[in-house]
Design a protein that fits this description.
- The chain has 108 residues and is an all-alpha fold.
- It has one domain: Cytochrome Bc1 Complex, Chain D, domain 2 (Orthogonal Bundle).
- Helices cover 49% and strands 0% of the residues.
Length: 108
């Protein structure tokens, strides 16, 4: 009986430990929108209806049609560099990346 109780206690301890692990922070979509407004809206449409100010810049609402937007995480962390000279290089912090990706996903 003592072994069964020990096993039960161990299992419960593991459940509580895993359950108390801090979850990944939820994206702050409004903060992601502000980042898009600050860094991107001069060229890209960042809403659901407007055309992009720069015709060659795809509207953010269509990015998910080209590739999963999550694939931008690494580029945002390392600094985006593109093939066209008019796009500035910039780099986001991890919490900004989460917010920005959350915002992009909200447009899907």
């Amino acid at each position: 009986m003592r072994v069964a109780n020990s096993s039960l206690l161990l299992a419960l301890a593991m459940i509580f430990t895993l359950g108390s692990a801090r979850p990944v922070e939820a994206a702050n979509i409004e903060q992601g929108r502000r980042l898009a407004l600050l860094y991107c809206a001069g060229c890209h449409a960042i809403d659901r209806v407007s055309p992009s100010p720069l015709r060659i810049a795809p509207p953010f609402r269509t990015l998910h049609e080209r590739y999963p937007v999550e694939t931008l995480e690494e580029a945002l962390a390392e600094g985006i560099v593109t093939g066209h000279p008019s796009m500035p290089q910039f780099q986001f912090e991890p919490d900004q990346i989460n917010d920005f990706i959350g915002f992009l996903k909200s447009l899907e």
